[in-house]
Amino acid sequence: MKFLSVLLLSYLLFAPATHAATAEHEHHLMMRGPEKAKPATTSKPVIAKKAPSKKAIKKPTSAYDKVMGLMHERMMGMTYTGDTDVDFARGMIPHHQGAVDMANILLASSQDKKLRKLARQIITWQNEEIGIMKRWLSARENTPVANDVNERESVKGFKAAMHDMHEAMDIPATGDINVDFSRGMIPHHQGAVDMAWVQIAYGRDPELRKIARDIIRSQPQEICLMQYWLNHHTEPKHKD
What we know:
Layout: H1 2-14, H2 19-25, H3 59-76, H4 84-109, H5 113-138, H6 153-168, H7 177-202, H8 206-233
Helix pairs in contact: 3-4, 4-5, 4-7, 5-8, 6-7, 7-8
């Protein structure tokens, strides 16, 4: 079983992206009935055991901190309405933008082929979803705030997902552009998955539910790819 798991992960890393996979990310998926929300899973990033050298590139890591700080500020400062669909779009737009910004930073500095491929996919797919959500939201910006907004289960769910993500991303930088990208993007992706489950549980809009389903299907796979990369590019902790 362990061998099969490794083989599967290797296939995901090295197999080229297919037309079918791209189509799935473009949201040409059949709708299914309402699904029950699943408990959020915990994906803890692997911490590199090797200390960064004095020559390690610090600039990209500082850029990561800047874009993540901006994302956190926009997400935590958003106005909730109690309308699950509106709140999902308002929170996911800056969340996706943070991923796109991190991916662009990686492409500007990294030479790792596997992570560069992933970064390009993130930019393509998440920019597309940002466009869809912005167009959807443009006609709903005046959505009134519910009187019991803070008591809505969807609002509680979104806030919990954001809190857990921000806490998990508060990890020390190594100065290694590839390691820091992977360690930051894993909890970032997990946050998107947790928010998507809230949308599936309480949202109604078919277009946004398609985006949520796509996130739930695709981003755990990308988490596995980054975890696999970290496991093979950071030094294991040796027992004394």
